[in-house]
Every structure is written in structure tokens, then in C-alpha cells.
Automatic annotation (TrEMBL):
Keywords: Membrane, Transmembrane, Transmembrane helix
Domain of life: Bacteria
TM helices/strands, residue ranges: 20-53
Species this protein is from: Pseudidiomarina indica
Region annotation (Disordered) ranges: 83-111
Protein name in UniProt: Uncharacterized protein
Positions with biased composition (Basic and acidic residues): 102-111
Length: 111
């Protein structure tokens, strides 16, 4: 890997007999290309954020609906449990009223 890096350093390093104006222009062009790339990247990032807003709104709306559904389901479950308990108590009370407590004697049928 180190050999590969040194090879590229030698390629990038300006030659001693290179034109100074060409070296400066090439560095300015390289910097300009970096700035253009950065600008395009920022535009793509901003565009992504703008497109993400409706998706986030839709997800928030779905989560809100799920929360409301869960809340309603819990309330319905609680109401059904209370209704079942009341029905059970009512049946127990009714069953207790229909039972006649006391003593009884069995009479012979022959008499």
C-alpha cells in the first residue's frame, strides 16, 4: 500500500520544469471542481430533506392513529371486563334469590 501511495505522490507532484502558471491554474481548477461538487452535494441533501417531510408527516399521522386505536381498544377491553364482572355479579345475585333456604321434611306418600 505504501508503494502505491508513493507512486501517486510522484504523479501528483509538479515536475521541476513545469510552467508555474499551469500549476496555479490546475490547482484553481481543482479547487473549483471541489466547490462545485460540494454545492451539488448540498443541493441533493436539501432536496432529500424536502422530500422527507411528507414521509415524516405520514408516519407521524400513522403513529397517531395507532395510538388512538390502542387507546380505544384498551378502553373497550376495560368496559367489556367491567360489563362481564357486572353480569357475573348479577347472575350470582339472581341465583341467590332463587334459592330458598331452610329445613324441609319428606312426607311419606302412603299417608
Amino acid at each position: 500500500m505504501l508503494i502505491y501511495i508513493r507512486h501517486w505522490q510522484e504523479k501528483v507532484k509538479p515536475r521541476p520544469n513545469a510552467n508555474l502558471l499551469m500549476v496555479i491554474v490546475s490547482w484553481l481548477l481543482f479547487g473549483l471542481l471541489l466547490l462545485v461538487g460540494l454545492f451539488i452535494g448540498l443541493i441533493v441533501l436539501l432536496f432529500g430533506w424536502i422530500l422527507m417531510l411528507p414521509t415524516l408527516w405520514r408516519r407521524r399521522h400513522e403513529l397517531k392513529q395507532m395510538w388512538q386505536f390502542t387507546k380505544a381498544a384498551r378502553a373497550a377491553q376495560r368496559d367489556a371486563h367491567q360489563y362481564a364482572r357486572k353480569q357475573h355479579e348479577y347472575r350470582q345475585n339472581q341465583a341467590d334469590d332463587s334459592v330458598i333456604e331452610g329445613e324441609f321434611k319428606v312426607k311419606d306418600r302412603d299417608q
